[in-house]
């Protein structure tokens, strides 16, 4: 972790929040008056946002949520829907006394935030959808989705499985240049409860429904960020999703699936500009 990132996290505080999906670990960091609530992707935890906080923590407060069975969060005892994730995000906001906030996430986290904006539009000032699946459909999962969801419980101890996930998420250059992150990625997966982690992964992959046709129902300003090299969720479909949202904006960035790790400076600049234009009274 860089000295800049360490400084941004000096004032961080960890909390455990009771939700319908179990106790979720939440990191409260940053010094701004405007709050951004973020949820990570599957196979990752709040640490993917360290670079973003390093860039924006002086102007924004962040609540970073570890999803069920990820990071320091307990796992849910049952599989769940993305609507349940949205409710859990809302419960975190309630615990911190937040009526409204900027909500977002990466992949799974983007789905949670989008569903929050759909079921409780008055709670979302703006929505940040980073590398978010728009057509995931649990009724018709592809071969790769079935392999990941089926193998997660039994293969987490396999470095080959974990490396395969890492190669899907990040370019080789990023993995080479971020050995500490690559190590924490492996450590988190090895230490996770395999049964509960598998439930979370199956929930995302096998119990989801397409977000694309519902984008037109998100009334809040919505930013869709896509990795140009993300083969899982191609740029063209991400751009289409942004065009469907009434107040949608689209921004492609270099890299694959976890843009906030691969290009935190570029993502931060895009988010700052979007919020300055679309949300009143936020820092420039």
Describe the structure.
The chain contains 12 helices and 8 strands. It starts with a helix and ends in a 6-residue tail after the last helix. The chain has helices at 3-8, 50-56, 82-95, 108-119, 143-155, 159-169, 172-177, 179-191, 194-206, 235-244, 259-262, 264-278, and strands at 13-19, 22-29, 34-39, 60-65, 101-106, 124-130, 222-227, 248-253. Helix 2 crosses helix 12 (264-278), helix 3 packs across helix 4 (108-119) and helix 5 (143-155) runs antiparallel to helix 9. The protein has a single domain, classed as 3-Layer(aba) Sandwich (Rossmann fold). The chain is 44% helix and 18% strand. By secondary structure, the protein is α/β, with parallel strands linked by helices. The chain is globular. Strand 5, helix 4 and strand 6 form a beta-alpha-beta unit. It has an 8-stranded mixed beta sheet, with helices on both faces.
Strand order of the largest sheet: 1-2-4-3-5-6-7-8
* Major β-sheet profile: 8 strands, mixed
CATH architectural category: 3-Layer(aba) Sandwich
Q: Based on CA inertia axes, which overall geometry fits? A: globular
Fourth-tier CATH superfamily name: Alpha/Beta hydrolase fold, catalytic domain
The helix count comes to 12
Q: CATH class, please? A: Alpha Beta
CATH topology: Rossmann fold
Q: Could you list the spans in which at least 5 consecutive residues all have pLDDT below 50?
A: 1-6
Q: Helix content range of the residues, please?
A: 40-55%
Strand content: 15-25%
Mean pLDDT: 85
Q: What structural category do the secondary elements indicate?
A: alpha/beta
- Number of discrete domains: 1
Straight-line N-to-C gap:
26 Å
Topology as a string of helices (H) and strands (E): HEEEHEHEHEHHHHHEHEHH
Number of strands: 8
Please compute the radius of gyration using only Cα atoms: 17 Å
Task: Give the assembly state of these chains.
Answer: single chain
